[in-house]
């Protein structure tokens, strides 16, 4: 059994025991979070409608920062140039149960 979950702006395939990275949530390490389900697959049965009650329970392992991304802007012949960096913050969670 696995599920497709929507966490932030991304969708990911998860099964029980998987460790995934999602966008930053305010929960602390050791706490439990609920992630909404988009699609649920159990063998041959695929469920995509009526998933209001379905969710994925996950335990928060901790937070971390993603890789550094460099943003550079440059305009020719004007002397304009700008350099900026960014590191996205993520939360690492371990899937404990898929509630159908």
Automatic annotation (TrEMBL):
Alphabetical UniProt keywords: Ribonucleoprotein, Ribosomal protein, RNA-binding, rRNA-binding
Cross-referenced SUPFAM superfamilies: L21p-like
Name of this chain's protein: Large ribosomal subunit protein bL21
PANTHER family named among the record's database cross-references: 50S RIBOSOMAL PROTEIN L21, LARGE RIBOSOMAL SUBUNIT PROTEIN BL21M
Top-level taxon of origin: Bacteria
Function field: This protein binds to 23S rRNA in the presence of protein L20.
UniProt family annotation: Belongs to the bacterial ribosomal protein bL21 family.
Organism: Nocardioides jiangxiensis
Tagged with keyword S-adenosyl-L-methionine: no
């Amino acid at each position: 059994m696995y599920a497709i979950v929507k966490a932030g702006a991304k969708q990911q395939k998860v099964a029980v025991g998987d460790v995934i990275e999602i966008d930053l949530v305010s929960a602390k390490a050791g706490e439990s979070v609920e992630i909404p389900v988009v699609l649920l697959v159990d063998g041959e049965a695929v469920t995509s409608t009526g998933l209001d009650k379905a969710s994925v329970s996950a335990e928060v392992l901790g937070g971390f920062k993603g890789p550094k991304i460099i943003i550079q802007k440059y305009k020719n012949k004007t002397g304009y140039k700008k350099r900026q960096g960014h590191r996205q913050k993520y939360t690492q969670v371990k899937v404990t149960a898929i509630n159908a």
